[in-house]
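Morning!

This is the sequence you dropped in the shared folder:
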Amino acid sequence: MKAEIITIGDEILIGQIVDTNSAWLAERLNAIGVRVAQISSIQDDRGHIIDALNEAKERADIILITGGLGPTKDDITKETLGDYFQSNFVFNEDVYANIERIFKPRDIPVLSVNKEQAKVPDNCEVMINKLGTAPAMWFEKDGKVFVSMPGIPFEMKGLILDSIIPKIKDKYNTQAIFHKTVLTQGIGEAKLAEKIEVWRKSLTLYDIKLAFLPSLNSVRLRLSSYGGARSEQKVVEDKVAELKELIPDFVFGYDNQTLEEVVGKELNKKKQTVSTAESCTGGNIAGRLTKISGSSDYFIGSVVSYSDEVKKVMLDVSADDIEKHGAVSREVVEQMAIGVKNKLKTDYSVATSGIAGPKGGTDKKPVGTMWVAVASPTEVVSKMFRFGDERSRNVERTVITALNLLRKQIIKEEL
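The structure's back. Tokens below.
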């Protein structure tokens, strides 16, 4: 079963907004066994809409359309769909009652343009939008399903979850797809593929598909089993357990977990605390840790020691070591970690110092040279990394690497 998603709106094409609807829709469809064949963004233009519908029906069984259903004259999707499906427009009392229900508590009069939204094609199934005034419309033609929905994300999501997904499942008797995603950090895609090649080949015996999903300084491995039966899910879980045994140093979590979430859970479990001393990362590690609700239980504070003077005054870093080795060095970053750990009296600390770029590099320490240190209750470990020459990427990679080094040290202390 294949679907296609069409988003309508000039605001997407000129970069004014980002199309988040399609990604969310694709995830929900995939979960019920409907594969998305293509995603398109088009102008709010009659000719473009008709061309897109004609092309989509050749590729997909279900065509989902978002956008272009507003009350103003520049939203022409409903009228275009009426022409495409040779519809007459009728006044729908239920849609109008829903509009009145939304407007009445706010003491807003229903204008003529709002009333027009209650006029719908006579050959579609209307789905009431409980969160907005424009309904969804379900058409069927030549054995294909076309569903038009508002583009406002929370309205579209409500319609999908309450009405459209249940109807798709009922009509097509779809089978769920079970996904399990393994999150890795600290190993590149090519090296990872080499390490797990024999294991990867074994997946074909169980009809499990594997996808490599690389991102900045991490690689996700998504295992998919089609059918969704408990026995199939158990096989996937068993293969994931095998994978973790193969690459234990690189797996940090599963599915939608983040490194900061995993670190937080480990610290909470041990009832321990952490602090940060950041130079090149400028407080970004602290920002990631504090994104997690409840992080005040384990995150104590941070010193953003961007200048050498702050390193010396606030973190007790030796002026002689800064002079001798430079701020971007093992000696300095380890003292930063020890200094903030002692000052804030935490169990762990993380420190970073590096050359994010684009300026500041030398032959010995080029742009992208980053030092990370973690101080634990028993030791201080530090590592030097060489990333690239793009500033924002260097900062982000250092943040991810530092969080993972912290995670490893917390786990190591448990052993």
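Headline: The chain has a mean pLDDT of 94.

More detail when I'm at my desk.
O.
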